[in-house]
């Protein structure tokens, strides 16, 4: 019985920790640092301005920050967004930071 309860507790913990970020590659890694592209432009010109806004998460319990495209573009007074990237950095899925990178003019 104790083994069954311990197994359920471990499975639940792993399931909860793996949900600590909305953007994941699907695999477990000690350290993650990657960028995903969400292209909103039709051309190759990315513009002259780059704004970045980040949200940090600790084990799904506490999330802080403003990570939207609006916040990223407002930081550099961008009038037109041409491309959007997401940069994800994490450690053991305990701490995760997701940054929205807006590029444009």
Given the helix and strand composition, which structural class is it? alpha+beta
Determine the strand fraction and express it as a percent band: 35-45%
Rounded mean pLDDT is 79
Report low-confidence residues grouped into runs of 5 or more. none
Strand order within the widest sheet? 1-4-5-2-3
| Overall tally of structural domains | 1
Count of strand segments: 5
Rg over C-alpha atoms, rounded to the nearest angstrom: 18 Å
The percentage helix is: 10-25%
**Count of helical segments?**
2
Largest sheet: 5 strands, antiparallel
Report how far the terminal alpha carbons are from each other. 62 Å
Signal peptide: 1-21
InterPro entries: TRL-like
Keywords: Signal
Protein name: TRL-like family protein
List the helices and strands and how they pair.
Elements (H helix, E strand, L loop, with lengths): L1 H16 L13 E8 L10 E10 L3 E4 L3 H6 L6 E11 L3 E10 L1
Antiparallel strand pairs: 1-4, 2-3, 2-5, 4-5
Please tag this protein with its features.
105 residues; alpha+beta; 5-stranded antiparallel sheet; 2 helices; 5 strands; 21% helix; elongated; TRL-like; signal; TRL-like family protein
Explain this structure to me?
- The chain has helices spanning 2-17, 69-74, and strands at 31-38, 49-58, 62-65, 81-91, 95-104.
- The chain is of the alpha+beta class and 105 residues long.
- Strands 1-4-5-2-3 form a 5-stranded antiparallel sheet.
- It starts with a helix and ends with a strand.
- InterPro entries: TRL-like.
- This is TRL-like family protein.
- Residues 1-21 form the signal peptide.
């Amino acid at each position: 019985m104790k083994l069954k309860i311990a197994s359920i507790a471990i499975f639940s913990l792993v399931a909860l920790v793996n949900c600590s970020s909305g953007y994941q590659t699907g695999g477990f890694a000690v350290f993650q640092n990657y960028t995903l592209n969400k292209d909103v432009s039709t051309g190759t010109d990315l513009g002259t301005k780059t704004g970045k806004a980040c949200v940090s998460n600790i084990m799904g319990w506490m999330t802080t920050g403003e990570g939207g495209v609006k916040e990223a573009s407002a930081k550099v007074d961008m009038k037109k967004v041409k491309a959007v990237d997401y940069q994800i950095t994490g450690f053991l899925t305990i701490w995760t930071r997701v940054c929205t990178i807006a590029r444009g003019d």
